[in-house]
Amino acid sequence: MRPIQDIIKEKPWVGWLLFFSTVVIVFFIGLFASSIVERRSEALTLQTVKPLPEWEPRNEVWGENYPREYETYRKTLDTNFASKYAGSVFRDYLEDYPELVIMWAGYGFAKEYNQARGHANAIKDIREILRTGGKDDRPMPSTCWTCKSTDVPRVMAEEGVAEFYKVNWYDRGHQIVNPIGCQDCHDPKTMNLRITRPALIEAFERQGKKISDFSHNEMRLLVCAQCHVEYYFKGEGNYLTFPWDKGFSADDMEEYFDEINFSDWTHALSKAPMLKAQHPDYELFMTGTHAEKDVSCADCHMPYKTEGGVKFTDHHIQSPLNNVENSCFVCHRDNTDKMIQMVYTRQDKIMELRGLLEESLAAAHIEAKTAWDNGASDKEMEKALQLIRHSQWRWDWVAAANGAGFHSPNEALRVLGTGIQKAEQARKELALVLVKHGVSYPIAMPDVSTKAKAQAYIGLDMEALEADKEKLLKNTVPKWDSLARERQGTLIDY
Amino acid sequence: MRPIQDIIKEKPWVGWLLFFSTVVIVFFIGLFASSIVERRSEALTLQTVKPLPEWEPRNEVWGENYPREYETYRKTLDTNFASKYAGSVFRDYLEDYPELVIMWAGYGFAKEYNQARGHANAIKDIREILRTGGKDDRPMPSTCWTCKSTDVPRVMAEEGVAEFYKVNWYDRGHQIVNPIGCQDCHDPKTMNLRITRPALIEAFERQGKKISDFSHNEMRLLVCAQCHVEYYFKGEGNYLTFPWDKGFSADDMEEYFDEINFSDWTHALSKAPMLKAQHPDYELFMTGTHAEKDVSCADCHMPYKTEGGVKFTDHHIQSPLNNVENSCFVCHRDNTDKMIQMVYTRQDKIMELRGLLEESLAAAHIEAKTAWDNGASDKEMEKALQLIRHSQWRWDWVAAANGAGFHSPNEALRVLGTGIQKAEQARKELALVLVKHGVSYPIAMPDVSTKAKAQAYIGLDMEALEADKEKLLKNTVPKWDSLARERQGTLIDY
Q1: Exposed site from A12, A57, B86, B243, fewest CB < 10 Å?
Q2: Tens of pLDDT along A134-159?
Q3: A357 to chain B: nearest residue by CA?
Q4: What is the Cβ-side half-sphere exposure of residue B159, based on CA atoms within 13 angstroms?
């Protein structure tokens, strides 16, 4: 090929052609770049950021400043259940697994336990659930509100943290009306992530760690870990406390609870001193492969989204299975169906062991009741009851966590495996006690094959509970709302 | 900036500079490429490929044609134990876990069971292990040779497959002298992968699948799956058979064995009809995350290696933990220590559940013996013995597989979890039988805390076994070798 300068020397128009082509191409690239820049600046100039007070609980007020984030947040109202174990409709877990009613006899969860829903439903759900009681029966402390509302930090700031927990759940109904939202995680001045719940800060402080020492990426875990953790209500004041002082594992926390001789309730059938686990999502997640790779909650549950020229964090917090392309595919290359199938393969194994353990535990409680009924002594029952306590704790540590164990399948299976051993060991002890007291083994089992049958067996008067709840929702809740409306000006019915 | 042609028009030397720079750069690129091509062609021209017969068992003869592959293969002699659970020295598993002696009472594995070593040790190891017996005691059939030597396809071709299995292990000692090697997996004419062991072909044929339908990548699994699978010795002719007809999982194979009422042996203590699992590596691997991504055995255990200008498959088959940089790092980006730590994290959980199950099973066998000793009837024991059979099968399905469960941690943990349940259920049944026969529970346990104590407890005369083995190794084996040397001309002492 001849050198280009020779060609141009001979035919000058070739040089001019090259020159003008370049000019035209660069012009269009400029136009394109300008179009992007213009859209972004429009987004910025149209957005007039209104200053927010330190504790503004109303998500819709924050939403005026951050319309995209608010709009996506509002989508958490409509929980779209893509997961196999969630199904396509809202699940009543007590209908699905009637063993749970037996396992929780004597405790609120036997009354009602449903699939978790999106954050914006938090106030509606906590008011409606039978566990929080009605107008007359008021079984729960104010501590139950802690993770349900943006009003909590405000009331804590006004009244003090210990004081917040001390009163009855019912008594704060008028103060707490806005569902989980913006200010639970954000500083209103800088929009930086911030921890608003003292229990997390206190748990780390007991380990000599300050929140300010954590990186931004760790904060993307910790704002979620304010609530998505195991906790308990400590002492008479029901002070919200994380049982982390010996470590994060099911085994460590079990040791912690044993040492302080804590139990959430005494089981109505077996009389075992029980522990209730509360979604230890953070603790379980931290043992898994995604945590090993420094993935944070938001990476999968709040991936980036683009609308027009604007890229922002999708605040429609949901199962990544609803949004595989934007969540999983940032790191994984595969097709959507296969990706989802791989999650199910892991969850299937966990659900299999969970199911085995649920059956064993329900049977163990009933066998223990039969032993008591036939004159077993405290001393004879001691070993079995301790095994039941530990076994159900380990079951619950996995079962209460969101994601059907997917946050760390190996750890979930390990913990379930140890739980299965303890449940069967308990049943061996009980079999020996029963035989000793002249009861032939296996005992005849009651029919507790549906939620209704199981609830009747453990002596729950569901009609009374529902009637009392109805009174609360019809008579009291409207008063709470009107007091709130007076206080804060507006109140959205999410 | 001015157009280049204007500059060149004014200063012609600029054009020449550009021209000669290009020439010089292209010249050096050419030199570099030539250097690569030259080295590869040297490798090819120096290599005079000698035609091999259809069944050449001597690896060193193949090695003359393929020196790099052979040289790396020979490194399997020196098994470098990098894994945490392998330790840095050769492990005697019965010393490490004396429970195994109890669990295998009445079966060869209670005599001796060591950590697996590299392929080139296969002949040496099978001759030396107490399980294959001595000069006088000859407990095993010829089927045991099947996966140990390149002589096997030759003898099968000469004598017939069923005939191969039929005789005693001892009687083929002179025929089978070359360790696992080249022709077990390669066609000597094309060097393509080929299946030389009939059991795999037959198992797929029963499922309507032909080996020729599998892809090359699948063949990279299947040449290993000739041996690294679960199998059993069927019928009086000890015909090597894979129990795959109902599926690959521990549960499917258990059902298969139950249906044909098969057991490997009757337990010497518990009298349970036992199953012995044989390293179901392929089956376990296929349930794991690496199989989901179409990774084959060779990708991790035989990654590519470069020497000089030649890239070839490393035939030093070993733990990828010895070779993280060349195996794991092809897909994973991390540092070596963290990579290894992530493997250990998974293996730790599996070893924890395995350990729990081993203790339970050993205790169950001893409790069952005590029940028999105290007059228990077949009917009373039936349920417990079936549970022991299933539990130990599930334990072994994980424990016998190589890699401490890492080939599929989730499935390993699931299977162990179900095994734990069955072991504890067996112990409940046994406790009831014991109490019924007037034995107080828990029973007093014998001291079986070391290999020697456990072997004495189950009644093994280790001195006699060792003396008989010594006779075999001193008197018989040299004769086997000299007959082999006569037959094949040369014999390397690996």
Answers
A1: A12
A2: 999 999 999 999 999 999 999 999 99
A3: B421
A4: 15
Nearest-neighbour CA in chain B from A81: distance (Å): 25
Give the mean pLDDT of A52-76: 94
What is the number of other CB atoms lying within 10 angstroms of the CB of residue B82? 16
A-chain CB neighbours of B346 within 8 Å are 410
Percent with pLDDT over 90 in chain B: 83
Alpha carbon separation from A319 to A126, A327, A343, B151 (Å, rounded): 21, 10, 12, 56
Q: Which of B409, B417, B432 sits opposite A353 (nearest CB)?
A: B417
Write the CA distances from B469 to B135, B176, B494, integer angstroms: 7, 18, 20
Chain B positions touching A346 (Cβ under 8 A) are: 410
Whether B432 sits inside 8 A of A413 (CB atoms) is no
Tens digit of pLDDT for each residue in A252-272? Answer: 999 999 999 999 999 999 999
- The pLDDT tens digits for B62-118 are 999 999 999 999 999 986 655 555 455 578 999 999 999 999 999 999 999 998 889
For residue A419, give the nearest of A391, A446, A377 by alpha carbon: A391
Q: Which residues of B touch A441 (CB under 8 A)?
A: 432
Going from N- to C-terminal start, the domains of chain A cover: 4-47, 59-488
Closest-CA distance of chain A to residue B71, Å: 37
Does the beta-carbon distance from B9 to A4 stay under 8 Å?
Answer: no
pLDDT in tens, B32-43: 777 666 655 555
Rounded to 5°, angle at Cα B491 from B155 and B50: 80
Query: Would you tell me how many other CB atoms lie within 10 Å of the CB of residue A244?
Result: 22
Residue A215 binned pLDDT confidence (cut-offs 50, 70, 90): very high
Considering CB atoms only, which of B4, B9, B414 is closest to A413? B414
- Token pair in block for residue A167: 């009163």
SS3 for B251? helix
Interface contacts A/B by beta carbons within 8 Å: 105
Q: Which long-range contacts (CB under 8 A, 24 or more apart) does B216-219 make?
A: B217/B294, B217/B296, B218/B296, B219/B193, B219/B195
Compute the C-alpha angle B138/B141/B143, nearest 5°.
145
pTM of the predicted model as reported, rounded to 2 decimal places: 0.91
**Nearest CB neighbour to A342, from listed B292, B342, B431:** B292
Choose the mutation target among A410, A429, A436 for the interface with B, i.e. most B CBs under 10 Å.
A410
- Nearest-CB residue to B420 (from A5, A417, A427): A417
Q: Which CATH class is domain A59-488?
A: mainly alpha
Query: What are the residues of chain A with a beta carbon less than 8 Å away from any beta carbon of chain B?
Result: 3-5, 8-9, 15, 18-19, 287, 289, 292, 338, 342, 345-346, 349, 352-353, 356, 360, 409-411, 413-414, 416-418, 420-421, 424-425, 427-428, 431-432, 435-436, 441
Q: Cβ–Cβ of A18/B3 closer than 8 Å?
A: yes
- Kindly report the nearest CA distance between residue A417 and chain B, in angstroms: 4
